[in-house]
Amino acid sequence: MLTLLRVVSLTVVRMTKSVHSATHHHPSTGYIGQSVPRKDIRRLLTGQGAYVDDHQLSKIAHVAFLRSPYAHAKILKIELDAAKVSPGVIDIVQASDIAPLCKPYKGILKHLEGMQAVFQTPLAQDRALWHGHPVVAVVAQSRAQAEDAVELIFVDWEELPPVVNEKQALLPESPLIHAELGTNVCWERKIQCAGIDDVFQSSHTIVEGHFSTSRHTHVTLEPRSILADYRAGEQQLNIIQSTQVPHMMHSLVAELFSMPQSQVRIIAPDVGGSFGLKIHIYGDEMTVIALAIKLQRPIKFIADRLESFLSDYHSRDHQVWAKMAFSADGLIQAIEMDDVQSMGAFTGFPRGSVNEARQIINLVGGAYEVPHYQARTRVVYQNKSMYGQYRSVGHPVACLVTEALMDRGARSLGIDPAVLRQRNYLAKDSFPRKLKTGPVLENLSQHQALEQLLEMMHYQKLRAEQKKLREKQIFRGIGFASFLEMSNPSSNTYGKGGVSIAAQDAATVRLMSDGTLFCSASINEFGQGASTIAAQIVAEVLGVDFYQVRVSLGDTDIAPFGGDNWGSRGTGIGGEAIYQTAKRLKQNILEFAAQLYQKEITRLGLAQGFVVELDSSTELVSLEELARIVYFQPERHQCLQVPELSVTHSYAQRTYDGVCTNGIQAAYIEVDPEIGEIKLLKHWVVEDCGVAINPLLIDEQIRGGVIQGIGAALYEQCLYSPEGQLTNGSLVDYLVPLATEMPDIEISHTCTPTKTSDLGAKGAGEAGVAGASAAILNAVNDALAPLNVSFDAIPITPQNIIRALYKSVGD
Amino acid sequence: MKSPSFLYVRPESFDAVFALLAEYGDDAKILAGGQSLLPSLNMRLSAPAVLIDISLLQELKEIKEVKNIEDSNKAKDTLHVGALVKYCEIETSSLIETYAPLLYRALPFVAHKAVRSRGTFGGSIAFADAASETPAMTLAHEAIFVLRSALGERRVRADDFFLGLYETAIQPNEILVRAEFKKPHLGQRCVFREIMRRKGDYATVGLGIRGYINQDICQDLRIVYFAVADKPLVSTRVVEVLRNRKMDTAGIDFAISYLEEDIQVYGDTYHDEHTKMHLIRVLLKRSLLELIQMEYAPTEGSENV
Amino acid sequence: MSKLMQKSIPKSIHEPQERIDIELKVNGKLVNAKVLARTHLVDFLREDLGLTGAHLGCEQGVCGACTILLDGALVRGCLVLAAQADGTEIETIEGAFQSGRLQSLIDAFQQCNAAQCGFCSPAMLLTAGELLTRNSKPSREEIREQISGNYCRCTGYQAIVNAVESCFTNGGTHD
Questions:
Q1: Which of the following CATH numbers is that of domain B7-53: 3.30.43.10, 3.30.930.10, 3.30.420.40, 3.40.50.620?
Q2: Which ipTM was obtained for this model?
Q3: What is the pTM of this model?
Q4: Torsions phi, psi for B248 (to 5 deg)
Q5: What residues of chain A lie within 8 A of the CB of B275, using their CB?
């Protein structure tokens, strides 16, 4: 089996065209570092996946919501008489019905100075504050019947003036979304730099941009889904939820519904995509839980696609003015930037909606030596859907601003953009390196990554090809994007601010009486391969076949408590917890074997399911036999204590705020200027995530992320009417990348292991998104440079290109 | 997004269909392929009381060549394309390739395979989405639509059929039976082009051109634009300028300068009217250049943007 | 090309009804049911027959997650009424898997990691499989075009293209 896997993994490595240069010394005799195909994937491929909607329970009822059609309106009256007698209706509730069951909640990070937030309730009370705000919930025998009843509800609205963009939000005369705050600014941070004006004055070259990244919605293929069941007999609340964060949900649901955690169980089954969507407390989902408790039966809610567009948390809505100063030989002298993030009507709970802005102000210019940096960020309330995290949280915006200015500088100075980057990277020997903005960067491989990239893409050849084709009026462009991506976060992100999100992870590894292994951990599977990573680590440490390891994730009754998945922490923190736990179990096994067989423990090891004598490779005892002795025949040994064959251990990353990773991307594109169409010819990524546990899984994560970043660069934006209504909230109108238009992506890696853990693994899940939009923007600007056109805003649509090139269009 | 309730009926004769239409009037909708109707029901944009599934009417499923044996000088052979012929059948029909090559070439651009296996020709015509390829190409081929009611049949020219956005000449008591295409003369050249954001999307702008060019002189040209206004538009001015003109780059540029007299353009979610006008102008030029570069080879495929 | 096999012509229904009797074959088995007029085929398969491999992503016919085979042709299950499926032969991923005809494609998807969250995968497999029945050596462009109506948010599509390609380049056979 092992041989087969090795052959298979080699074939896969060839096909994905990845080059792995792991330099970290690791006793890699087993699975760690191998491109092992996921073992739990066959279930999904054969239609045996079990997503929330696939679960059926007896007496199940379904929910549909009446949502506000207005961005801002008073709720004067709600008439339910007709709806109540609609066929199949079981119950109809409003905010006042939910209040006795569910506490209001406020998303705030106490360690962020000056952050302003208010409480919110699951259903709108008195006032609807965004288009889609849930107001009434109908429970019926079927979803269709619930929707029928919703149509019969009459609401008397009084429209109020909405705040629909950041400019408006900041004007003193604009309406206040929350009068009690006295402002529409949720949070502001300034980084001052004395004398920066003089530095700009005396610099050789200054480049500037007004950058705009559009409001996004995640569009997970499986929408938000929850099945809540309250068993009155045991007072037990069981929830099956499509979520990335069952442990966080567990803590918060118990708190909000005034129940001890011991009476709450959250199970994340198969999850059809999340990318940071399914990590928040949603009012409609909390309403479903309240209904389960009130009606004492299972209640299912699957957000349909139209309501997903209206009610999913949004992200990436930034206006960033920035300028960068260079010396004559292209060394960055200073960066100044001013960011405004347009969030939603409330702060997200519990994560607060400001983390994008937090990352951006910290990381603009982050990859480079920047002697002077001054910045301000403001996060402003809007009458729009709530706001939160989307894969790579903030990094893509910081990267776009920085990298666009770098290219602009390169053009002004007449320096090759790759050379300019190389010149400015943080010095190789300067790590660990504290940025002026706060984060400490442990160790990066930027110079090596850039060299590797230029070689992979045959850079000089592409430049020559570009030049030749320009003479034929064919416009091709090359765009680079160096990026940083923080991973393995510490408690500085949330815990320090009083938020109930764990910064540690734990794992349990147990030897079963037949010699197989069982592993549970506090991280979760939603397609990225967490179960496989866990099995690889356990299999290698315990010396068993990969298929002998059973992994259980996502059930709060089974898994030890921990931080779940976000911020690319699954492998780096969860994996480390699993690794250290497995090693402790191994130690226990070897100690027992040494005692039982009177051998020196240093001479023993584990291989092929056996305890072996290392020098002779003699099999001493099988794991199965050893387990049977411990469990069934304790009379056979003299140990004072029963040996522990089930071990639980925790790990937290406490050295840095986050473990920084780096990478660089390049895009090669062709623009048809007459019709504004962009053809994506090829894309490259060189990425450093430290020790790669499974290169196949990492590379496919990166590819998925790159495509999302391309979506941001060319297609995705939430559009609003002047009254604040979302106008393109359907899959026909909100455009996501489809297969025909997307490029092949070539990936290779550099490797600087992190010393914060034994495994040395950094996070990789978000790297693809971090740099892709910037690479595309830069490529488009590179392609159109001869036509004196340059873009600061994404998405770059055909209309944008046409308007820029044909000044008469749009008059 | 569950559909509201409705009643379903599956009649097996035209008489039964007409009786149902008479009884239910506006409360009934014809269910053909369902690829436009069912999404609209799922989104609760419409709420008919009755859906009349006409899939048992076998006559509507025929692609039939009707030879003219009487007077080969005057009338041409005709192709009858029934209303329930599916997109995927049109896509692979050599008869349609011969009789209506623009329609044939447009088909791969219609949505995706899984929609083309259910969606019907007649359903698309009756729905009359302004960005849809099928209505526009029937207009380009000057199809005749046969409408039938309890009172009998009437024939409506394509020019008189498409009245506005989702609006056709079909009366509430009628159903579309078929379209009839005349066999083109030898030497007809065709170009179909469309611009879209992603393959399979509704067109941003599109057009179909067919015509005859003899030794660089334009003999006869028909251009139909779609996805530019509330219905497909037939060119009057540009074709007039091109008639009997030498078809070279200068001639084409001259004709295109009359484009604004040819059509009035509406914007969409991502392209305002100015952008659309620009795009259709570029598309028209590229298409006309392609037309004059074509060898006489009526079944040659045209590259699309 | 058309594989439309009208095995049996559905019965006529003279009076408009809210509940409709249907008889159809699903994954080779005969099924008799009474369905509400408004129930679409995917909801019928999922709720009434427990075949949850076809997924709902939009109910608008756009995302492709509900794609199944009806009389041998790819269709959007959310844009077919269960009533319209009377007299047809339906194949879902469960049936395709059990028949073994997608074995090499499923293996290839696993080897190439062509699925992450898996929500699009059953539809993606049926769609890719349909291409291979007509074209034994599609180019990468042809593969991309075939799956252009199937939305995937996780993989970025390349691994799926690799998987389909590997089915014939590695000498694997397909059905």
A1: 3.30.43.10
A2: 0.95
A3: 0.95
A4: -125, 180
A5: 798-799, 802-803, 809-810
